[in-house]
Predict the structure.
Amino acid sequence: MAKKTPSSETKQTAPQASTGKAAGVPAPAAAVPSTAAAQKPTPSTAKAADASASIAKESPDKTVKTEASAAPKAAPAKKAAPAKPADKKPPAKASEKAIPASPAQSAAPAPAAVAETPQEPTAPPLPSEADFVASLQPLPIEGIDDEAAKLELLREVEAQFELFKGANEAIQEGEEPAAEPAQPEPEPTPEPEYYQAPEPEHRYEGPTMPHLYIVQITPELAPVAKVGGLADVVFGLSNELEIRGNSVEIILPKYDCLRYDHIWGLCETFNDLWVPWFGGAIHCTVFFGFVHGRKCFFIEPHSADNFFNRGSVYGFKDDVLRFAFFSRAAMEFLWKSGKNPDIIHCHDWQTALAPVFLFEIYQHLGLRHPRVCFTIHNFKHQGVTGAQVLQATGLNRPEYYYHYDRMRDNHNPQAINLMKTGVVYSNFITTVSPRHAIEAKDQGEGFGLEPTLHIHHRKFGGVVNGIDYSLWNPEIDNLIPNRYSADDLSGKYEDKRALRQRLWLADNEKPIVAFVGRLDPQKGLELIRHAIFYTLQRGGQFVLLGSSPEAQINNYFWSLKHQFNDNPDVHIEIGFNEELSHLIYAGSDLMVVPSRFEPCGLAQLIAMRYGSIPVVREVGGLADTVIDKDFSWKPLHERNGFVFRDYNEAGLESALGRAISCYYEFPADFRETIKNAMRSDYSWKNPGQDYLNIYDFIREK
Ligand code: ADP
């Protein structure tokens, strides 16, 4: 609370003066009652009595004090009021302005000295009370006609006298002159008002839940170890979970082919990890580093097997053993380093043994808290293997694990199925879109795992993938020459020109149809090939970027490339080229994704973000994310692509034909569809919340 100023003191003593006025101003000394008890019990006198009482508290002799306060009332007015020269008088009070300067006033002591007494407590010693009283002269109020001015004058005089009296008494009692005149009882200081930060703008709605410690065990991570969409998912999901305040750590193998230029601060963090293997143990070093802000642990085994120094992530005969070792090493690292996450999130068959190790081994060693979420990105690859993996990893007990309810493959009783093991042992299993979850469980797309999914259907669901909008965003993308947004597409047309220049395509008005992805039979290779010919036939250009680990497929597309070598409307690029993929997404008009099956598919999500309208088969995640422009029950502004159902050339043509017609015949509609696609939200915002709900559902409570 602010300290009281002299003016506020003046106000507090005013009621006494008003009492004087009521009794007759000309004789103030007689008009003011000699004791508080003698005052008229009006509110104003009561207030005055309060003020007197509070002052009296300061003095041991109340009577003397009260009388003294009555006697010289208004006396200093003679000195104070007249002495204020009109030009120096502060103009704040209207009543002061009304006081005329008289000869008597000009003869009085300097007004400022009296007026400022309360502000300058170190003033020279005051005269005794007797001297002061003796010096009193009649009030020079004869010349003042204005009653209000007189009253104000009296108030001032009274206030000055109270100040004088208090200070003088203090001096007489041998005290130091008070720095401040006697004050009424200070009001209790209210609690200071602390700065209240505005409510944060919540990005997410939904149930509140505790922040979790999540460990991702993964064979891939974008961009350091990217083979397919799995890599993007692990990075994007981890990023989103951290944005929401969770702690996320990622464990992956230390491949020699890692993009080390994307790892910051790589250093050894655990040098004494011995991972059980074939009855012995393999010494490993664990490295720590940041991948675009994500906390990553890289496990490097030191053994003749040379598991992860082979120039690529997959494609080796012993892939099952390589990743079985990695899973065991990751769990051993968690246990040895004392980490106790709420959730361990495993991905695909490569890490499907982690929950088995947790619940069959490490739980009994004290790691009881973590729960496991297992995400299946592709049912096609399940890690079907022999009993050797049990022996290698130290699980042993084939009679126990070779059971239909545990690890035994549903079709080959001699084999162990790692993906099935993951389904059986995990607390929750997701695949990467709700549609694909149904297809896998009920429509024959589970590659033999349908019965297992039925048994465990209560802990199985689909969460559509998101894409990382900090990486895939044409407004900020440094890998494209011109940036643009849905509100201004001019940059996109510049990028189309840049793509043509880069790939030596003819500069014309044709639409560019593109394909970016793995050249895998899953992606619909026959229809991709047919799309090239059909696009040319309909007056378009075609760009293909892809590669396959299978030489036969690669060779086929190399021969196709040679076939179109001189065609100014086709370019086929065999290989993996992240940077070129950004330019293709930005510069193309249409993106074909004619997959046989597609658990989620990222290509169509990225294409939409860049305003390349997807032309897709209605399957899996493609069906969940692309809404046909012409045939849909959804509102017009949500329609973001062209969809066909049947896996054949006629099916493809039905959608691609409509798209190219729209480009030529209804450019405004085409442009509107581009904007719809760009505005569709396929960020990690919704999937991130979905995964958090799952984690919250399974975590130990
Ligand atoms: P999948 O995971 O089945 O391979 P997705 O569509 O889910 O297919 O994810 C593929 C991801 O890999 C996309 O980000 C796509 O851009 C990228 N990609 C695939 N092939 C290539 C390539 N040859 N060059 C650059 N990026 C590629």
Remarks:
- The two ends are 48 Å apart (CA to CA).
- The chain has a mean pLDDT of 82.
- The pocket of adenosine-5'-diphosphate is lined by residues 228-229, 232, 516-518, 545-547, 576-578, 581, 600-603, 606 (CB under 6 Å).
- The longest strand covers residues 263-277.
